[in-house]
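[09:14] KT: can someone run the structure on this one? pasting the chain below
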Amino acid sequence: MSAATEVRVPDIGDFTDVPVIEILVAPGDTVGVDDPLVTLESDKATMEIPAPAAGIVTQLRVAIGDRVSEGSVVLLLEPDGAGPAAAPEAPAAPEAPAAPEAPAAPEAPAGPEPPVRGEGDHHAQVVVLGAGPGGYTAAFRAADLGLKTILIERYPRLGGVCLNVGCIPSKTLLHAARVVAEAEEMREHGISFGKPAVDIDALRSWKESVVAKLTGGLAGLARQRKVQVLTGVGRFTGPNLLAVGEETVSFDHCIIAAGSEAATLPGLPEDPRIVDSTGALELSQVPKRMLVIGGGIIGLEMATVYDALGSKVTVVEVLDALIPGCDPDLVRPLQKRIAARYEAIMLGTKVTGIAPQKNGLKVNFEGAPSKIFDRVLVAVGRRPNGALIGADAAGVHVDERGFIPVDAQMRTNIPHIHAIGDIVGDPMLAHKASHEGKVAAEVIAGVPGASFDPRAIPSVAYTDPEVAWMGLTETDARAQETPVEKAVFPWAASGRALSLGREEGLTKLLFEPGSRRLLGAGMVGVNAGELIAETVHAIEMGSDAEDLGLTIHPHPTLSETVGFAAELAEATITDMIAPRER
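[09:31] RB: done, C-alpha cells below
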C-alpha cells in the first residue's frame, strides 16, 4: 500500500490564520482531482481547497473552527489505485504513516464489534435515533470524529421537543411575559405604559421565527458535517437494523436519543380545550380562565406566560408543594408572588374529573368545589419513550417505566447500542442530554477516558421569579442525614436586585462542615438561571467557600450574591453583619 500524502493549503494570497468553516469529506471518501475538500472563509472571501490528485481520504488534520495558513496540512490522501485493489509488489514492510500533528479521528469506531451485521438500504458507522439536543449533539460529535453518521428524526425539523415545542418556544414566550410584567411593575416607580395590546398572531409568528432560525441552523450544520438525515419514526428490527418508514438502516453502533412525551391523566375526555404543553405553546388563543394541572416546572412556566397575557390562572397540584424536589425556601418567593397574581393555587388537591360543557370545562376537585375553565393545561410530567422504539427486537433492556439503563459510557446492555437523554432517566433536561450525547459519540470513536460522571446537573424553573438549584439540596441532606453548613444571602441586601425593583430573591450555598467544600447551591430571583452555572463550575472544581469568596465579582450584579453568600460562610462579609465569627 502506498503511503498517504499530505494535502496542504496552497497559496491563498496574503491571508493567514483563516478559519475552516466547512469540511466536505470524511475518512474513507474517494475524491477526484480538484474535488473540494474543505472551505475557508476570510473577512473578504470564501475559498475551497481542492484535491491535488485523485485518491482516498485516510485522515483529517483539521476541524471546523481551526485556523490555517499556506502550507497547513488539511488531510492525508492515499493516491488512487493504492490499497488492496492494486497489484501487489514483492512483499515488503509497509511504510510507517507520518506522525500526526494532533490527535486524529479514528477511521473506524473502537469497541466491540456488533454480533450481527444487518444489511439495510442505508448503512452508517453510527446511527442516532432522535434529533433533540442530545441526539443532534451526538450525531455532530460523531461526524466530527470521522464516523459516518445517520440521524433519524420523526419530525420534519431537527431539534426534537426542546427546540420545536419545548424549551425554546416556551422561553421566547416567557421573555414576552417578563416584558409585560416589567411594564406593569414600573408604574410603582413613576413610569406608566398603559395596558399592553397583545397581537396574538404576531407573537405566535415571532415565536415560530425563533424556532425556525434555530432548527434551520441545525439543518445547515448537519449538511456541513455530511450527517445524513432521515425523516420518519425509527424502530429496531434487529440488533443492527432499524426500520424508518419503508426504508431500513443498518449500523455498526447506535445511539438511542428518542426522548420522552408528555404524561397524561387517565379518564380525561377528548376535548380540544384540554391541552398539553405542546398545545399550550401553539398559542391559539388567550383563555379568560385557565386551569394548570401540575405545579412543576412546565406547568408553572406556562402559567407565567398565560398570566402575563391576561388569563386568570389557577394551579392545582396533588402534592403539598410547588416544584416538588426543590427546597421550600427557594420556592417560597415564587409562591408568594404568584399567589397575589393568580386566581388560586390549590395544593394537596386532586382533580377527580372534567366534564365538557358549552360554556367551558367543568372541573371537579377532591375536597373542593367544582369550577369552570375555558382551557385546561395538563402538565403532570413526562414519560420516556423506551417502550415505543421496538427495543426488544435489538435485545435492549427497557424497565417497567420505559427507561433504558446505561453505564457511565452510556452503553445499554447491548454493548454496541448506547442511549442518552430523557430515555435513560432523570433529570430530564436538555443540557444533560447534550453532554451524554458527546460522551456516547466519543466512547464509540475510542476517545480515551470518555465518561459521563458529573458532580452536579443544574435545574432551572424559568418562572417569574426564576428558581435554580444544583448539587445537594437541603431537603436531600436532611433525608440522608448529611450534615451541612448553610449560608444564605438575601437579595434585599443586593444593590442590583434593589435597582431592578425585585428584592424578593436569595442565594443559598451548602458547604461540607469543616472543609467548607461546596456541596450544593440554590437561587431564586430575576435571572437566577444565569447565576447557577458558576456554582456548578465551582463544585466540579472542588471549590470551597474561600475560593468563591475570593473570586472578584463585578459590581453591581446579581452574581455578587454568590460571592457574598460564600463570605457569609467565611465570616468575612462587610455588606452584612456576619452571623458569627470564626
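[09:33] KT: thanks! Residues 82-116 have pLDDT under 50 and may be disordered.
[09:34] RB: yep, looked fine to me
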